[in-house]
Amino acid sequence: MQPEEGKKRAAGGSKSGSGEGSAPRILIADDDLQSVELLEAYLADTGYEVRTATDGEATLRETQQWQPDVILLDIMMPKISGFEVCKRLRANSSSRSIGILMITALDQSSDVERAVEAGTDDFLTKPINKTELLLRVRSLLKSRQNQSNLDRALAYIEAVERGEK
């Protein structure tokens, strides 16, 4: 049984916005229904908006349409692997800054190296610890917000230097 593609869920709790007062968006990309349900349960009551994708192609499509803040990306997926999805996301300017947390049953150091080479921000090995997952997601969201603030400040400084402000 496969999870429903692109399913929208509010993960409950208060909305802890990531810009313009909206809830942070988390995309779970995994073809295993039990893993998806577990991750959704871990994210419940966080205030995050959650969607799912069940293969690499759906992950790329959902990312382009929805622009999540963080992707929980399984490596072993049908159609396109998580490694390749990560590479493609990093190669695209509209998805380059999305936080990517690779989650997998693979536990060889070479797998971690491949994930880093593909452009992942972080890596978790199954079984997933809830506290560790939530801390890493929060860290990726904070990092994304800090980068956004820095980009705005640099744009402002450049505008001032050009005499536009």
User: How is the biggest beta sheet arranged?
Assistant: 6 strands, mixed
Mean pLDDT: 86
Distance between the termini: 56 Å
Helix and strand string, N-terminal first?
EEHEHEHEHEH
Q: What would you note in describing this structure?
A:
The protein is an alpha/beta fold. It has a single domain, classed as Response regulator (Rossmann fold, 3-Layer(aba) Sandwich), CATH 3.40.50. 45% of the residues lie in helices and 16% in strands. Strands 1-3-2-4-5-6 form a six-stranded mixed sheet, sandwiched between helices. Helix 2 packs parallel to helix 3 and helix 3 runs parallel beside helix 4. The longest helix has 32 residues. It is globular and about 55 Å long.
SSE blueprint:
Elements: E1 9-10, E2 25-29, H1 33-43, E3 49-53, H2 56-66, E4 70-74, H3 82-91, E5 99-104, H4 109-118, E6 122-125, H5 130-161
Helix pairs in contact: 2-3, 3-4
Defining traits:
single chain; 6-stranded mixed beta sheet; alpha/beta; 165 residues; Rossmann fold
